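Morning, I've got a small favour to ask if you have a moment. It would help a lot if you went through both lines with me. Thanks so much in advance, here it is.

***
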Amino acid sequence: MRIGIDARMYGPKVGGGGLGRYVEQLVHELASIDQHNRYVLFLKRDNEPDARLFNERIETRVADIHWYTLREQLQLGGIIDRERLDLVHFPHWNVPRFLKTPFIVTVHDLILLEEPRSAKATTKHPLVYALKYRGFREVLRHALFTSQHIIAVSEYTKQSILRYFPDVPAGKISVVYEGVTPLGDGKQPSTQRSAPNPYLLYVGNAYPHKNLETLLHAFSFFHRLHPKVTLTLAGRDDLFYERLRKECEEIDLPPGAVRFVMNPSDGDLHDLYVGASVYVFPSRVEGFGLPALEAMQAGVPVAASRAGSLPEILADAATYFDPVDIEDIVHVLEQTLTDATLRATLVARGSQRVKQFSWKTMAEQTLAVYEEVHQRKTR
């Protein structure tokens, strides 16, 4: 087969933490395990050099079109169709409407349907607002119903698809878990120094469904009980984190109680995880929850929201709280911080839990989907 991958989100620097990591690891693992098929990667100009794997079975094409734009819908399909591929894999729901090449799609979550506040969030991209309000459901519906197959990253995401789109056959959806990436391998040196005192850590974006405003309010109460403990928030510097900083200034917290680490490298993230006392994951909705697994990999106890896919992914290796109950958040954070026996149990369970998630296994199962779809087409 000649398989295309929409790799414009390749790498955390360009595609963001979760999606960027997913595309990056999918490409790397396929390059390692698949000795038969050929691949064409469609990339943005910013990440095309990083994705040159110098593998004779993998070609790259620059398709410098940003996601969630009208250009993506009108032009990307033609660029892909010209390659005459047997199949193309879209790692997100934003499939070009006029694409003729058979495709599969990965759905990470349906947050824009489940979380109206996130659906209304605006960004610096002028067409995002219109797409989210007027086009998201149509584009998503097209991706789900026109695709040859759907990959969901959790059982929770699969059930969300079936709940919002009951006409999608359940047999058309395969659950393929993501993996966990070892961080701090020395390739990217750390540029951030860890905080000297104990700290709670969150890693990720600051979109509304991440519930970081509620976390800040809960931390304001927690900090009164534990004044030496600070909160570190790490993610990509954008409008949402700017808003969060302003929110932080309006809350009754002393200077230095909340630390923002923007645009961290993998080396930075490694140091942040290793130095943290508790990793906190307050999301109201989550399709997978990769940062919590990265924290477990680093030996950090995790306190997470009892929402979305998090109980499915983290199982008994985390403590859980109600994401809208500030008192419950404070109580669980305090318990996770101070109970030595509980902490040791969580660390031990976490080290075992992360072994259940492998990028190699993810790529093997994804490749099996490619092959099954191709066989079905050629029967």
Residues 186-194 have pLDDT under 50 and may be disordered. The chain is about 45% helix and 15% strand. The longest strand covers residues 38-43. The CA atoms of residues 296 and 350 lie 5 Å apart.
